[in-house]
Predict the 3D structure of the following.
Amino acid sequence: MKDKLLILGFDGTSPDLLTKWMESGELPVLKDLVGKGAFGTLRSVPNMSSPPAWTSFATGKNPGKHGIFRFTERNFSNYQYKYVNAAFRRSATFWELLCGKRIGCVVNVPMTYPVDIINGCMIAGFDAPDIESEGVCYPTSLIEELNTKVDPYVIIRDSADMLRKGAQFDQAAGQMLESMELRYRHMSYLMDKYEWELFTVVFNETDHAQHFFWKFTDPGHPDYDESQAAEYGDLILKIYKKMDEITGRLIAENPDVTVILMSDHGGGINTRGAELVSDWLQGLGLLAREEQEATRAKGFLNRTVIKMAKHAYNFANRRLSTKTKLKLIKAFPSMRERVESAIRLGGIDWSGTKAYCDGAQDDIWINLAGRDPLGIVQESEYDELCDFICRELKNAVDVTTGEPIVDSAFRRADAYSGNYVERASDITICWKPKAVITGIKTESSPSSLKAAKFDWPRQMCTGGHSMDGVFIAAGPRIKKDVRLKDAQILDIAPTVMYIFGEEIPVDMDGMVIEEIFEASYYQDNPPKYGSSSESDAGEEDIYSEEDSSVIEQRLRDLGYI
């Protein structure tokens, strides 16, 4: 009998929530699966961001080797951003390595657009602009076939758009449940159509539910309301129960497969720390704003235009349909990038700025001479400045509570290795997972620092990411009742290669998760290692202006930018 491996990715699944609901009997299938195999946490990539995490899952390499760090990448010719997809990936995936010999199906894994041509089938994840985009699936007729023989294929539901337009939270959750069921039906069709040996699929709804509904299940959230919790407090649980149900059906339909269920990171509270970094940098004198030159007519005009652009942009984002916004993009093709840049980095006086943050991601960039267009920090100052910022952050406290707020602040060379480390931000911040930050206070902060006043608009994400995701494995040759502590998302790809008895590329950073296998089997079948799996990426700028707008709106709805 051929080895068969089913990989179920449930984006953002929290080990804490999973354990709690398994113990309470809400997730009987997963509880049974854990009893039959291995269970533990799965450590994410250092910045806990989905694009590098899923790419590390696929390649077994840290982001410094595969080249993807965020949903966006800096355009170093200006202070703008470009949107990232699989064309930026600089390393082979386990399905590329395996599917010359085996039949594989890969469905909805993030950062897989455009898809790879494999021995089997593939459908891109939500970095694909549209189901009709070139490169969204292989074979090229596959989505049309699913539309005809199953149900219309959807890349991602517009649950966030529903909430923004006033739909109830339970309606948005209902749409997520329908989306999970639809994904399952498409999977079942493909499982019957192909004589597959490897089937990999990702469900995004677990992550999205936590982003939108976290405040209903977490009494520690500042926007927690008992009456709302009574009405909506089970919405995340409903998504987890659907995960349990789908997993049960798939195991029943494929009783002899090895199953790996995993997530790219965990879930937690939206700390909102990134929103405050720019003000903190300004307080330290490292970031200058044009507002400081209010007496200059030009400065006043720039500020007024930026404010008007922000108001208009945010109004359009809330009120207009995606279809209407795309029509505007076609009419004004360069407007989106300029306005988006103004919102992220507008009003900065680059001649007086040494370090900056875009307010959406937990990253700090140094305004480096020779790299940034208006850089003022010399190479000789760079190390000292980075070390100063990291030291300050590691001792940072909340301005209101006085409690520590930063788990770690690290330079890119301390977290990543490989040929593409310079694509990472200069400094990355990891906040304390349970803090909602009202202001960043450090030793060098001004004594007059006050707490920010936050509100939580209906459509704003109240949940965020945490470092530890979930790992479950069960099946032939998997040891029973194993509890893991140190597994990493980097370990999935080499473990997959080992399950199929194939050579593991020597440049993979991950390791085979040895402790999940029966000792005698592993002893008789040690891992085999082969050549490097580095690869050349295709043309990176494959998104049109319209494609970029679709991706931007999708990420904005989900709270990523």
Observations:
- The CA atoms of residues 246 and 252 lie 10 Å apart.
